[in-house]
Amino acid sequence: SEKGHDYEVYHSLEEIQNWMYDMNKTYSDLVHMFSIGKSYEKRPLFILRLGKTSQTYKRAVWIDCGIHAREWIGPAFCQWFVKEVVQTYNNDPVMQMFLNRLYFYIMPVLNVDGYHFSWTNDRFWRKTRSKSYRFGCNGVDANRNWNVQWCDEGASSDPCDDIYCGPFPESEPEVKAVAKFLRKRKHQIKAYLSFHAYAQMLLYPYSYKYEEIPNFSCVESAAHKAVNALYSVHGIRYRYGPASTTMYVSSGSSIDWAYKNGIPYAFAFELRDTGHYGFLLPDSLIKPTCTETMLAVKNITLHLLKKC
Amino acid sequence: HLYNNRYAGDQVIRVTPTTDEEAEVVRNINQQFKTDLWQPSSTFNIRTGTIVDMHIEKNTLQTFLAWLQQTGIQYRILIPDLQQEIEKQHGFKRGRSRR
Fold this sequence. Notes:
The complex is a heterodimer of chains A (about 300) and B (about 100). Chain A is α/β, with parallel strands linked by helices and about 300 residues long. Chain A is about 35% helix and about 15% strand. In chain A, helix 6 links the parallel strand 6 (about 200-205) and strand 7. The N and C termini of chain A lie far apart (about 40 Å). The mean pLDDT of chain A is about 95. Chain B is an alpha+beta fold and about 100 residues long. Chain B has three helices and four strands, in the order βαββαβα. Chain B has a four-stranded antiparallel beta sheet. The radius of gyration of chain B is 15 Å and the shape is elongated. Chain B starts with 10 loop residues before the first strand and ends with a helix. Classes of the chains: A alpha/beta (about 300), B alpha+beta (about 100).
């Protein structure tokens, strides 16, 4: 049951999906679960919509985790976020305000096939699991497959590379499904947040070029406040800035696509740590990582509710 | 053992090339040994000053380290046994809860 779900350990895909069903059932006034399509291996792509149902127009925040299969702290955070929302709604006025005024669309695992593969076969798998019979290598980098400067610098046309961009943009059914969902709601969704690991960074567009985004000052201000809030919890420093200069140039990324699609705040979090454990962040560090990240996300949400 | 113990003896090594020549060497080593690059996500992104974390399999480890030592590039072992870290991440708390 949901009450027995341990948020301080990593969970398999099946456990996460069972938990989603339970949350949908237990908190039906705040949580609504639905599917936006199927993965390459025909697994459902589940989303949780959080928020008080309203007849009036509500803006929304999109959060996805697990674009890259081996980055397990991402899905752990997505679960933590949902838990915090439902458990604090009744006694946290800020959370009440969020859920009354907004919806949160949470996709705990975007790359469901890859995540399952990383649990059962190859712990360090990154890509999707689509097959390329011609070249003998499987999978596409789901963060190089979006239709924005697709397969340019920082992506690869070699199917055997970990940053393979795919045979064409949105070739991956997971990417296509999310893109279709966001395109349909482009006027509603005001923030796109994607969770990765590891580097301890908060990144915003552009990834594919060195230019400044038009609303740089608003986005930079939101990022600055978010990393300060994050630091205030456990003293963990996150760098922040445009992905192209803070990390490296990459094309076809989800944050660039979301931004190009009209979502004014598009962020990629690279969660803990900076390499001591890397992808193998111990479960004992799930709670501090998620607690500090939660505050950063709340900050960004507060920022977008104000006029900038 | 998880994953049939396939990661036993594998290591994660960190190098930070300090010159363009070292960066070129590190790119070449990665391509030659087909390492599992943890960061950055591609050899294309390896430049001077880039922190490079590589997962090296046990059966190529000695050769890889020997080659790296020959180049004089400083390196650090981040994770000396990947299987141990995987086991720690996976089940420690669950085992405790079960007990």
